[in-house]
Amino acid sequence: MNKTNAARILDSAGINYSLTEYEVDESDLSATHVAAQLGQDVGQVFKTLVLRGDKTGLFVCVIPGADEVDLKKAAKASGNKNAEMIHVKELQPLTGYIRGGCSPIGMKKKYPTYLDEQCILYDEIYISAGIRGMQIKLAPDDLVKVTGCEICELTV
Predict the structure, then answer these.
(1) In angstroms, rounded to a whole number, what is the distance separating the alpha carbons of residues 63 and 46?
(2) How far apart are CA 100 and CA 37, in angstroms?
(3) CB neighbour list of residue 131: distance below 8 Å, 6 or more residues apart
């Protein structure tokens, strides 16, 4: 198993984590599918979304896989009046990651990042390792340490 950039960042920060591979289905890149492949509760498998706020520009929300981001809550958390999801074709140029393989760790630039409060329900959560077919399992507090993210309410 090759280490991703996100894994190398965790290594250099001295953070404990594990990598888990899963079977990719190009027709279903959903977190629900990933959770099923991992044999995990979809609430524990978090997805990374990139949004654009009307005042602060780009920011990142990390939310449970089956949930939808509440754009009003995300805007408020990030100091914006309004926010919208970026278009999928903007994802790779802005973050260095592709859809279905976007990690909150190791993006091209350090964007303000917000982690949904449901993360506290779990000792460990899964996030993308930065490629399709691989997830990182780590403690929510360690994700906060490495990304500087803020825990807040983000979902509908």
Answers:
(1) 5
(2) 14
(3) 4, 101
Label the pairing between strands 57-64 and 83-85.
unpaired
Yes or no: say if 80 and 55 are a contact pair by the CB < 8 Å rule. yes
Quick: pLDDT tens for 84-111.
999 999 999 999 999 999 999 999 999 9
Q: What is the pLDDT of residues 56-68, one digit of tens each?
A: 999 999 999 999 9
* pTM for this entry: 0.98
Please list, in sequence order, all residues whose beta carbon lies within 8 angstroms of the beta carbon of residue 142, skipping any fewer than 6 positions away.
Answer: 10, 15, 16, 17
Q: Which domains does the chain carry? A: 5-122+135-152 (3.90.960.10)
Distance of alpha carbon 45 from alpha carbon 139, whole angstroms? 12
